[in-house]
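Milestone M4 deliverable, item 7.
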Amino acid sequence: MTKRTYTYRNGDIIDQDIATDRGLLYGDGVFTTIAIKEGKARYLELHFQRLLHDCQRLKIDSVPLADIKLAFETSVKNVTDGIARITISRSSGERGYLCVEAKPVYWISISPLPTHLELYSKQGIKVRICEQRLAQNKTLAGIKHCNRLEQVMARNEWHGDQFQEGLMRDTEGNFIEGTMSNLFIIKNQQLLTPDLTFSGVEGIMRRLIISLAQQANIPVNITSIKSRELFSADGAFVTNSVIGIWPICSIEQGAGMKQLAKHPLMVTLQSSVNKLNLTSL
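Output delivered:
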């Protein structure tokens, strides 16, 4: 009878701290993705606030935030342009869902910055409507947790560059978000964005866009968005902290595509975001 746990990866025994990481085994953790441009990590403090908030929501205690900040600074000090991902998992340890003593583990990875970000910001993108639905779960809604299977399944519904993003609905038919982004539509000079009470990720850029719109006296309505609202919109765009704002220029509609113009309100918000990027955040 064995008295130790062994884990083999492709036939080779691997370190048990890695093999028993709860983020890997159960998606039991959170993450955030940070754009580094011209040597500056964008919205860094907001990312750390989100990590701590999401850990608290999942009851992941004793997060070594000071250590993570120091390690992050060291990791990116020579990076001019790139994408950094910080992942925090609850712990490594024995198998099973129960975690008796959490000792959070953090990971920091650095990747190249995609070259197409500015192009899509200027010319807009084409989006499709995904078949994969988002489950409703108020306990996990809003959190950027490590279980992203719904997004993985949705993103693998298309290949190639025919579409740059896919829009996802929940099981009730409400549009919630993109596979990697938050959704906004413009109707009658007001900004509408989906209610994330029961599903979706509350992105940092989403929060910033809402704040910037309110400062500019642009009405913001957080509400349910069905197909009729989406396809009757005067404009639409998607956001995240890496891409900023990508205008939607066309949406898959049956066998055809609905065309959308670049709305003046969106241009105003893009300008506000660009100005914000010049400040220390």
